[in-house]
Design brief:
The chain is of the alpha+beta class. The chain is about 15% helix and about 40% strand. It folds into 4 domains: about 100 residues, Fervidobacterium nodosum Rt17-B1 like (Heat Shock Protein 90, 2-Layer Sandwich); about 80 residues, no CATH class; about 80 residues, Sandwich (Immunoglobulin-like), CATH 2.60.40.10; about 80 residues, Immunoglobulin-like (Sandwich), CATH 2.60.40. The longest helix has 20 residues.
Length: about 400
């Protein structure tokens, strides 16, 4: 049996009738029912209705005329005579988000799965039509990013059958066709409940000869934040990562025994995690968000693990016949330390050690010396802690 699928969808974006626009209004203030009729088959009712877009201007008038023309037959003759018992009717749903209104119209014939679709978007202040790019611009993303999200949704849906030995080859062909440029050109976007960016797209499945349709939220249209790097500083663990195009801000999560817990939100790809204990491992992940704090990217499920090491604190400075003896408290988790002495041009390395004391013999009587210590990795090639920027001082007495 041949199955043909299209989708009928009308998305209308309204951006304020007056300066107060849709404050306190509902979707019904902007869209009303133009025609409605109920047919009966074997005691079951099938309702047909189409919307009218209540905007001034020629664009809205042209669209209303097209809607009327396209579906006039549903009101002049009983469609059940052609498709007895298999037509669920013609209906629409509307969503109001601030000044943005989306109206979705669907006509379904479940027996042969025939659905047709169109999309109309409007700015109600000007009465001019808007298109996919205008809906995407409201979310600050490009058509390319939206398509990548749809492709990810399609690949996820095919994941299980692609690994099936009996259907894998057929599934790959169906996926290739579903993610082809010509098929993605038919993507349609609108704003659903709570301002969520929704996509209507088609999928060629492994069963049947026609296309099926999906309506999914695009919640991953920004790249997953990557390149997460961590550095121990005096205030805690300092995190940085690569910017995600389209992201207005980021949410950092720290892993706990019960799962991921929000650590904080930032607008720039920089965050300092301050709840730390020396020697303890911490795992983080980052997710991109839009300006309304909706997630618009995925996240690394395993996260990035880093061990926090506190800055070493000098405990005593002692004058001896051999020089100044510097002692510091051991830092849990630290392998090696680097001792510095302060000079006119800044901190200068004295030496490295795995212990917690050092005798500086290159000192002169009556001179004041200032020291600080920092943790380093086993190879001595990188700092793995912050340091006391003031340091500890002593006047040499030999």
């Amino acid at each position: 049996m041949k199955r043909t699928i299209s989708i009928l969808l009308i998305a209308v974006m309204l951006i304020g009738l007056l300066s107060v626009a849709s404050a306190g209004a509902s979707a019904s203030a902007y869209v009303t029912t133009a025609r409605q009729k109920t047919y009966y088959f074997e005691g079951k009712g099938f309702t047909y209705r189409i919307p009218k877009i209540n905007l001034s201007g020629s664009d809205a008038a042209d669209v209303n005329a097209k809607i009327y023309k396209d579906y006039n037959d549903c009101f002049t003759k009983n469609p059940l005579e052609a498709y007895p018992g298999n037509n669920t009717g013609l209906d629409y749903a509307s969503y109001l988000n601030g000044d943005v209104l989306s109206v979705v119209i669907t006509q379904v014939y479940p027996y042969n799965q025939f659905i047709t679709y169109d999309v109309y978007n409007f700015n109600v202040k000007t009465g001019k039509r808007l298109y996919n790019k205008d809906i995407l611009a409201l979310k600050g993303i490009t058509d390319t990013a939206a398509r990548k999200n749809v492709i990810a949704l399609l690949r996820n849906e095919f994941k299980s059958v692609l690994n099936n030995s009996s259907s894998g080859a057929i599934a790959q062909k169906a996926l290739d066709r579903s993610t082809s440029e010509s098929n993605l050109n038919d993507n349609l976007y609108f704003l659903g409940n709570n301002g969520k960016l929704m996509a209507k797209y088609t999928i060629y499945w492994i069963a049947g000869s026609g296309r099926y349709y999906r309506t999914k939220e695009l919640n991953a249209y920004a790249a997953t934040p990557s390149g997460v790097k961590a550095q121990n500083i005096n205030a805690g663990i300092h995190l940085t990562w690569s910017k995600s195009a389209g992201a207005a801000k980021y949410r950092v999560f720290a892993k706990t025994a019960s799962g991921w817990k929000k650590a904080g939100d930032v607008t720039d790809p920089v965050f300092t995690y301050k709840t730390t204990a020396s020697g303890k491992k911490y795992t983080f992940t980052v997710r991109a968000m839009d300006k309304n704090s909706n997630y618009i990217s995925g996240y690394h499920t395993t996260g990035f693990t880093y061990t926090f090491l506190a800055a070493p604190e000098i405990s005593t400075l002692t004058n001896t016949s051999k020089g100044v003896v510097i002692r510091w408290n051991p830092v849990p988790g630290a392998k090696n330390y680097r001792l510095f002495i302060k000079t006119a041009s800044g901190w200068r390395k004295v030496g490295d050690t795995s212990g917690t004391r050092w005798t500086n013999g290159a000192v002169k009587n009556g001179v004041r010396y200032t020291y600080t210590v920092r943790c380093i990795n086993a190879a001595g090639t990188a700092y793995v802690s912050g340091y006391n920027t003031v340091g500890a001082s002593i006047v040499c007495k030999r």
